[in-house]
Amino acid sequence: MSTSAQSPVPSAQSLTRFVHPVAFLVFMWLVRAFDWVLPGTFNTYGIRSWDVTSAFGIVLSPVLHSGWPHLVANSVPFLVLGLLVAAEGARRYWLVTGIIALVGGIGTWVVNWPGTLTVGASGLVFGYFGYLLVRAFVVKTLSHRILYAVIAIVVAVLYGGSMLTGVLPVRVGISWQGHLFGAIGGGLAAWLLRPRTPVPAKPANTFGF
């Protein structure tokens, strides 16, 4: 008889989930490089508030940036928070990212001043933070609640100041709308993707005499 024990070393398949936020960030850098080299600018494809022809900007805006400093400023928090979200799996990472982009993009399109152009991945950054924060309250097991609470506290210590001020209209040229609705989208994603309690099957009707 032979027995097998689970290896403490993570398998290559389990580690591939972390490739997704890294690849997404690399794609952003490639887009910025092409935008820098080619004539014109890709930023015209961002979110232009109240302009129905810019609806595609909801999808494209997160990968566009106004310049290299803008991209550099977003890269580290995006990667750190993105890896934390991706730890739950590639499928969940893209679901969370999609919900954040949709809610954040629509909110920005509606609330921002008409004609305002918005680009950048900071909405995703705030969305990942909102997701991790709300996730601590919707997971079922105590151990997972503690884990996500610790993660939320650590992230709050590292980025708390910028996260709090980022959702307020205190800095000219910064889309607080994108930050605010991105965070709302992240919280909504955590709630929509929360663990569900299985509904017990109803017993079959029986008749006795």
TrEMBL record:
Gene3D superfamilies: Rhomboid-like (1.20.1540.10). Keywords: Hydrolase, Membrane, Protease, Transmembrane, Transmembrane helix. GO terms for biological process: proteolysis. It comes from the Bacteria. It is a multi-pass membrane protein. Its main location: membrane. It is found in: Membrane. InterPro entries: Peptidase_S54_rhomboid_dom, Rhomboid-like_sf. SUPFAM superfamilies: Rhomboid-like (SSF144091). One of its GO terms (molecular function) is peptidase activity. It holds the Pfam family Rhomboid. The chain crosses the membrane at residues 70-86, 93-111, 117-134, 146-168, 174-193. Residues 56-195 form the Peptidase S54 rhomboid domain. This is Rhomboid family intramembrane serine protease. It comes from Brevibacterium samyangense. The lineage of its organism: Bacteria, Bacillati, Actinomycetota, Actinomycetes, Micrococcales.
